[in-house]
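Students often ask why inverse folding is considered easier than folding. One informal answer: many sequences map to the same fold, so there is more than one right answer. In these notes we will look at a single instance of the problem. The structure comes first.
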């Protein structure tokens, strides 16, 4: 077995505290996204979209964020391909952005 436990990096650039957060989640996202745009992140708009199907089996896929505003996030995928099937049945999802620089 290959040991990769030493790959961990320290992320001590700043702390996340209640006082440092914006009151609006969208404004907080804008703040983080602006930081991502200024960094070395390859595709800062790439996000993992997670859903569950009718049998509660989870599924994840990477999609690109296209727009966002005070109403939420807009992304595209083909609704009738595998990526879109679970979303057709349950219109709930979770997105995760990995804003780690190389």
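Output (designed amino acids):
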């Amino acid at each position: 077995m290959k040991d990769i436990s030493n790959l961990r990096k320290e992320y001590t650039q700043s702390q996340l505290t209640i006082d440092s957060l914006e009151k609006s989640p969208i404004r907080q996202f804008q703040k983080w996204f602006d930081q991502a745009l200024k960094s070395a992140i390859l595709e800062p708009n790439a996000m993992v979209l997670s859903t569950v199907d009718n049998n509660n089996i989870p599924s994840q896929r990477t999609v690109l964020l296209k727009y966002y505003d005070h109403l939420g996030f807009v992304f595209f995928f083909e609704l009738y391909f595998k990526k879109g099937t679970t979303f057709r049945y349950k219109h709930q999802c979770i997105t995760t952005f990995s804003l780690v620089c190389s």
